[in-house]
Automatic annotation (TrEMBL):
<keyword id="KW-0378">Hydrolase</keyword>
<feature type="signal peptide">
    <location>
        <begin position="1"/>
        <end position="27"/>
    </location>
</feature>
<feature type="domain" description="Sulfatase N-terminal">
    <location>
        <begin position="31"/>
        <end position="359"/>
    </location>
</feature>
<dbReference type="InterPro" id="IPR017850">
    <property type="entry name" value="Alkaline_phosphatase_core_sf"/>
</dbReference>
<dbReference type="InterPro" id="IPR000917">
    <property type="entry name" value="Sulfatase_N"/>
</dbReference>
<dbReference type="Pfam" id="PF00884">
    <property type="entry name" value="Sulfatase"/>
</dbReference>
<keyword id="KW-0732">Signal</keyword>
<protein>
    <submittedName>
        <fullName>Arylsulfatase</fullName>
        <ecNumber>3.1.6.1</ecNumber>
    </submittedName>
</protein>
<dbReference type="GO" id="GO:0004065">
    <property type="term" value="F:arylsulfatase activity"/>
</dbReference>
<dbReference type="InterPro" id="IPR052701">
    <property type="entry name" value="GAG_Ulvan_Degrading_Sulfatases"/>
</dbReference>
Length: 462
């Protein structure tokens, strides 16, 4: 929801008029910000969230030594809109990119990177962007990032062995061979020499080396464990199955597990890199996912119970499609071993990063700072009145989370209501029993949907 007032607890705020005004502060008061976002990682895919088969010891350690969120949400249930919400602090009823496609952020869209740049941060982005094609206003360099390496296009990002990646707007040739390569670089390689995830993560670690004097904002939206959709049932592309090679599992499940454990090892390397430079106590690390688990590339999310106790997967607005892991790690600042049920979502990165950096975010956002919760001062935490989502595949879907209530509506007609404390799996629709609650939730849906020339809802407005 739009927040008329944001409580900033670390530094005093100044009014934002035509530009974002930086606040003077010693470097020590401006922590480095690292935001790692997995791709299609489910709520139940990590050991610290109940996973039994896939090994994630490094990420589990971050949760044990940091803060784990139980009620944290993605900006959307698919790639591009989730990233748009994350970068702009506007939910899918207000942001520009509300679904997958070849859309570009506009020059007037303000990203997290642009906001923290006003506080002297250097921003680097490594992985899948999904918010701007080549030679458009949506390029990361135009949207506040000094360094970029990875995929601009989400279809290109399906291919883990592409013939090229993009560095700062220019294509960098790789030694992989992709016959019948698509317009955007998608396809299946016949010669697999360079694994894109490894290249991208190496560049991210080098960014830390180059900016160790800080402050820096490192945005690392990796592609693991997304599938290569062009590869059919062999879409879980990974160099090797590692410790899962001898398991009596279907091949795609070996690939899924190997991908997640590979990312886990890289998270260990990232923390080691921060330690190497003595940055751990002045760096906050976030780890999350862009949406729920997928059923693509041969992957079966039921095999690992990837959505845990939740209903639905990617492309659903049930909890399994949008509730995601969120871990915050900041030794000495974020209380170790804490678990919070504070309701937050990707759009809160904007206000949170601005708070940490000591600048005010743009006005009129759907974003609140989670810094009070992160620092153990929950009594000072401002709360969302409600969270809202809309999605345009499979009809026009809307959802609202307000306190303990969750409402889902299709095509402005079919309404479902759930009480999450009693029914986290959203199995029992109790809409008929609570017409007053349904009316309130529907009014929120109508209020928070702002018409867009790109996105046309189905169904009659109620």
């Amino acid at each position: 929801m739009r927040c008329p007032r944001l409580r900033l607890t670390l530094l005093p705020a100044v009014a934002l008029v035509a530009t974002l005004t930086p606040l003077p502060a010693p470097a020590a008061d401006k922590p480095n910000i690292v935001f790692v976002m997995a791709d299609d990682l489910g709520y139940g895919d990590l050991g610290c969230y109940g996973q039994q088969k896939i090994q994630t010891p490094n990420i589990d350690r971050l949760a044990a030594e940091g803060m784990k969120f139980t009620d944290f949400y993605a900006g959307s249930t698919v790639c591009a809109p989730s990233r748009c919400v994350l970068m702009t602090g506007l939910h899918t009823g207000h942001c520009f990119i509300r679904g997958n496609g070849k859309f570009n952020l506009r020059p007037g869209d303000v990203t997290v990177a642009e906001v923290v740049k006003k506080a002297g941060y250097t921003s680097g982005m490594f992985g899948k962007w999904g918010l701007g094609q080549e030679n458009t206003s949506g390029l990361p360099a135009i949207q506040g990032f000094k360094s970029f390496f990875g995929y601009l296009d989400q279809t290109h990002a399906h291919n883990y062995y592409p013939s090229f990646l993009v560095r700062n707007g220019k294509r960098v040739a790789l030694s992989n061979v992709v016959p019948d390569e698509g317009k955007y670089g998608q396809g299946v390689a016949s010669e697999k020499n360079e694994y894109s995830h490894d290249l991208i993560f190496a560049d991210a670690l080098e960014f830390i080396d180059q900016n160790a004097d800080g402050p820096f904002f490192l945005y690392l939206p990796v592609t693991i464990p997304h599938a290569n959709n062009q590869a059919g049932k062999e879409g879980m592309e990974v160099p090797d199955y590692g410790q899962y090679a001898d398991r009596d599992w279907p091949e795609p499940q070996k690939g899924t597990a190997a991908m997640i454990t590979r990312l886990d090892a890289d998270m260990g390397r990232l923390i080691e890199k921060l330690d190497e430079h003595g940055l751990s106590e002045n760096t906050i690390v976030f780890f999350t996912s862009d949406n729920g688990p997928h059923r693509e590339g041969g992957n079966n999310p039921d095999f690992f119970d990837s959505n845990g106790p939740l209903r639905g997967i990617k492309r659903d607005l049930y909890e399994g499609g949008i509730r995601v892991p969120m871990i915050a790690y900041w030794p000495g600042k974020v209380p170790a071993g804490t678990v919070t049920d504070e309701i937050g979502y990707h759009g809160d990165l904007m206000a949170t990063a601005a708070d940490l950096a000591g600048v005010e975010p743009p006005r009129g956002l759907d974003s609140i700072s989670l810094v009070p919760t992160l620092l153990g001062n929950s009594e000072n935490q401002e709360h969302h009145d409600a969270l809202y989502w809309e999605f345009y595949e499979r009809g026009f879907l809307q959802a609202v989370r307000k306190g303990d209530w969750k409402c889902v509506r299709r095509n402005r007609e079919k309404v479902e209501l759930y009480r999450l404390s009693e029914d986290i799996g959203e199995e029992h629709n109790i809409a008929d029993d609570h017409p007053d609650v349904v009316a309130e939730m529907v009014s929120i849906m109508e209020r928070e949907h702002v018409p867009s020339s790109l996105w046309k809802p189905r169904g009659k407005k109620q």
